[in-house]
Structures are given as structure tokens and as C-alpha cells.
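Reminder to self: C-alpha cells first, then the designed residues, so the page reads top to bottom the way the pipeline ran.
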């Protein structure tokens, strides 16, 4: 262990970042996405809050679309617009507007929640 540390410190001295710790998620992005148990309150709402509320909360309902609150979100699940927009499917506006698409894992989690019935959980 001590020997490893010393080697590592030496390595840092020569190449910065040599002690880089392999993050599993970065190495295996698709394998590491756990979609089981994706709930509205635990997963979906926080993503929407972080990525969509600035344009779609009750106060900033861009395009007359509010994604604040379960009942409102459910409407766009039922219409297919929620998944269509975040997956950039043909025929839908791409969301979040003018920003990078949500990371794959978050799209998969939202999709899993929808497939489980989009419950208020
Ligand atoms: C920068 C502001 C902005 C952000 C951020 C944003 N939207 Fe939008 N969104 C809009 C505007 C404006 C419209 C209406 C005009 C249009 O469709 O482009 C819209 C339309 C939509 C629609 C209807 C699209 C359709 O084709 O029927 C959905 C669904 C939607 N947004 C969901 C989301 C979701 C989910 C997020 C977050 C992942 C998000 N939006 C982030 C501005 C935004």
C-alpha cells in the first residue's frame, strides 16, 4: 500500500492526474444506468426542476406548458409530448430548448417511469 502511494505520488509529479480514479459511470455509461425504482418525486421531478422549470414552472410557462406538479406533467406524458421532446423524436420540439439534450441515463429513467405507468410515486 505504502509502496503504491509513493509510486502514485511520483506519478503525479510527472503526469498530473496519474492517480485518476476510474469512475465506473464514465467507463461504462450505459451499463451503469439504474432505471429500476425511478419515481416521480425521487427522479422525475428533480430532473424537471433542474432542467425545465426555468421555462416551464407555473410562473414561466413557456409555450403555455407547465411542468410543475404531477398532474401537469402527467398531461404531457399522456400526450406523448414529454418523451417526444426530451428524446428529440421527430415531430416534437427538442427540449430543453436551445440546450444540450438530457444525459442518456436521465432520459432512460424518465422513460422507465412512464413505462411503469407514470405513477404519482
Ligand atoms: C429555455 C426555455 C426552455 C427550456 C429550458 C425548456 N423548454 Fe420546453 N418549451 C419551451 C418553449 C418556448 C416551448 C414552446 C415552443 C416550442 O415548442 O418550441 C416549449 C415546448 C415544450 C413542449 C411541447 C413540445 C411539443 O413539441 O409539443 C414540451 C413537452 C416541453 N417544452 C418540455 C420541456 C422539458 C421536459 C424540458 C426540460 C427537459 C424543457 N421543456 C425545457 C422552452 C423551454
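Designed residues (121 positions):
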Amino acid at each position: 500500500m505504502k509502496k503504491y502511494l509513493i509510486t502514485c505520488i511520483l506519478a503525479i509529479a510527472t503526469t498530473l492526474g496519474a492517480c485518476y480514479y476510474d469512475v465506473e459511470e464514465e467507463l461504462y455509461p450505459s451499463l451503469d444506468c439504474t432505471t429500476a425504482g425511478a419515481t416521480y418525486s425521487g427522479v422525475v421531478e428533480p430532473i424537471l426542476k433542474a432542467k425545465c422549470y426555468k421555462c416551464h414552472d407555473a410562473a414561466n410557462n413557456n409555450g403555455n406548458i407547465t411542468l410543475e406538479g404531477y398532474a401537469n406533467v402527467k398531461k404531457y406524458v399522456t400526450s406523448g409530448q414529454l418523451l417526444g421532446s426530451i428524446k428529440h423524436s421527430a415531430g416534437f420540439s427538442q427540449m430543453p430548448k436551445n440546450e444540450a439534450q438530457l444525459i442518456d441515463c436521465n432520459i432512460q429513467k424518465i422513460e422507465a417511469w412512464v413505462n411503469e405507468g407514470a405513477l404519482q410515486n
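The CA atoms of residues 9 and 16 lie 10 Å apart.
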